[in-house]
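Aim 2 progress update. The chain analyzed this quarter is reproduced below.
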Amino acid sequence: MQDKTYAPEILDVITLLHQDRYIIPLYQRAYAWTKTEIDQLLSDIWGQYMQDPSGEYYIGSLVVSKNENSTFEIIDGQQRHTTLILINAVVNYLFCEFPYSSQANNLCFEGRTASQDLINEYSKNFIVAFSAEDRPDKLASLSSGIKDILRYFESLIRAYSKKDVENFIKYIYKQVCIIRIPLPKGTNLNQYFEIMNNRGEQLEPHQILKAKLLSTLQHKSEQTRQTFSDAWDACSQMNRYIQPCFKSEVRESVFGTDLLNIPKTYLKDELAEENNQHTTEKDTLKNILEQPYRFVAVEGKNSDPSTETRFRSIINFPNFLLHVLTLHLGDDNVSLDDKKLLDEFGCGHHSKRGLPDAIEFINNLLYYRTCFDRYLVKREEAATGSGWKILQFNKAESNYINVFTDPQEIIMIQSMLQVSFTSNNFKNWLRPVLALFKNNPTKEKAVFYSELQTITQNIFTEINKNLQNGTSTPIFLFNYLDFRLWQIYKALTEPSIDKKYVSDKVLSQIEQNTGVFKNFRFRQNNSVEHIAPQRPDTDVKHHVENLDHFGNLCLISRNSNSKYSNANFYGKQDYFLEDLRNNRVESLKQALIFRNDKWKDEEILEHGSDMVNILFKEKIMSTLDELIQYLKTKHPQEMVDLNVTNFATNSVERKPQPKYLFRGERTIDWKTSPTTFSRNLLGKPILEHVNYLLTGQSIHIPLTYQCHSLFHFLREDLFNIGICNEEPYSAQIDVELAGIFQHYGFDTCLLDLTGDINIAASFASTGSPGDVGQIMMLESKKIEDKYFELTAQPGNRAIRQNAYGLLGTPNLDVKSPDFSDEFEPKWFKFILTQNDKLKYTNNEMLSVTGDRVVSSIKEWWIEVGSKDLKASDEAKTYIEMKIALLK
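Predicted structure tokens:
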């Protein structure tokens, strides 16, 4: 009978932190997790929580040995356990007396009293421990770990409600589990630890995937399977260039005599099938498991220089496989989480699809891997010439040469993207870059650089651009700014390139630092920090009001942060000017900042404004109030005579109209909504039923059931037009009904406009302080006969909003070139402040107190919509949610 004393146990985090005592023995290494591992763990837990908030999530194992004093000595898993202890400390700080957290620490560090004391400090007085500086190197990882965890949770708190974050933390304590595996009594722990740390790698998921794909080729010839296997193993060696990963006798047949060809069809599906089924003995799952090192390159003093690992790939093999699968399937929904590799490839327990065709996939894998080697940056780690490189294999000299004559621009933009998105699971920029080679593996430098800039600009468009978000400001914004500053430096001597968006002061600062800009290279700096510190270590005379403003923020290394984060501006300047004198800085924004003689609110706001204008390459007002005053001065509202279509009489009338119409948007990426019917055409089944309930239009539901939609109900209730045997009515009624749908929360193809700039400002002020919002201004003359007054419709909202509607297409996009070409809108951007919100927020314009339209909508829902048996429960839930939002 099995001894249950040594049976594995499943522990949730509550049990792990509240019960038993654990000790990390002296022979174990110190805590070594960085921001990358911590963010990965928390992001994995968050992803699982969002997917299944009631299910359990296993984060690995804890191998232990039980001592005679009933403590558990940790043999494997101490990094994960220590991280949970740090998470618990942060939870205790952010959520006092959280019901599941532990107030005591049950983890001991043998022989490391400093580490033990630091953990206890965080438990007793978090703020004091957190604020302490000059931690010795052996404690830096623990101190940095706490800061990384705190930043992660603070970012969640800003993005989600407090209740959402509390539920997530509850999930961590109750649903996240670890498997505790006790070793049998008498195990030689030192020997076990040594064996465990020197053992061959366990079978990786990508090796299992290889075996699965090979199994689909069991009817093919031995040559087919061997050819597949050779390419797979070559591609798996991401830190080497692909050509030397093939045997010398086959390289030229794959890559051509000069080894520069990019193979499009490596393996053809035309080799004769054999009568008997074959399995290549060396490629069975069993043999791969038993020989995990079979394809690992052996390096030594007699090895070929071209085969030595002197490069570092920006991505690992499992993640590269997922990128190729995305391109192979044409499906951007493939997850980049390598823990889901087998599921995504169709051979896991939760697979959404079947295995791809093995021959087609290996051809794509080798093709994109060769393109990847040719055109994507690698990190060269040799003693000389280290840095970012884009090279190709040079057969003649058995070495590597530049792909492009002058690759600097392409290296800079790619390395900027790489240091901004270091986690393989979130390296989404790599997908569109690899997709550039789908039809053609040849890239001219100018074309490639232009395409990379477009991809980067698309990322900038999608990313959160709150510029008063303190240390939670996205790292990408700082790196992208540095890249744009570097572009300005490169264009200093080229008068044909527009630099009007760059202030004279910034141009002068760049000219003072040409050596710095020339030597600048992107590095992985993870700390967004304040220049004027939050807690100055001298006195209050260094205090500034605009601490979290973009102008006062800078991207620096963790080492610099730990040394100088609380020093005042002059203390930091003394340190960083030494780097400037040696033409060596961590960021270009930093180089400009420390060229200032002083650093108070005036300098912060001026520098911030200059940097924001460079980020956007256009003028951005510092506040919404500043923008509104500017528009009222430069474009004063007045009435002009225009032709307006009267749908009631089907005639054109000439009547006074506002000269300008406006639209306020809380962020510059705020998108207009397409109609519900156009969403049906996008293949979302729920919305067909939504569309049926709202408008009566449906693809599959018979016409006889379409008479009780919200559209028909409102037409009868508000305009007294019957459903059955209806009399002809003017098109104006349909316009008014479309306006009602738009103003009461249902999608239409009308574009909201207002004749009152203060109403536009109210909509624009709904963002968060620091958001970059915008006001769109249309000259009414440009949209004559294409827009409609909506102030005559029933209900309060359109009247209070001085509302107009521009009739667009089902997928109306005000950011599109077609819209700009036809209507010539003007866009004015601003940075929202708290004062703007106080001044311009107008809740009255959204009030529905005593509103007749809302009463009709609710009556329809109670009497008709909620009782309709033809519509799905999902559609009803969707509409009920929309109605609940009416306030």
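DSSP finds 36 helices and 22 strands in the chain. Residues 137-159 form the longest helix (23 residues). These observations will guide the mutagenesis experiments scheduled for the next reporting period.
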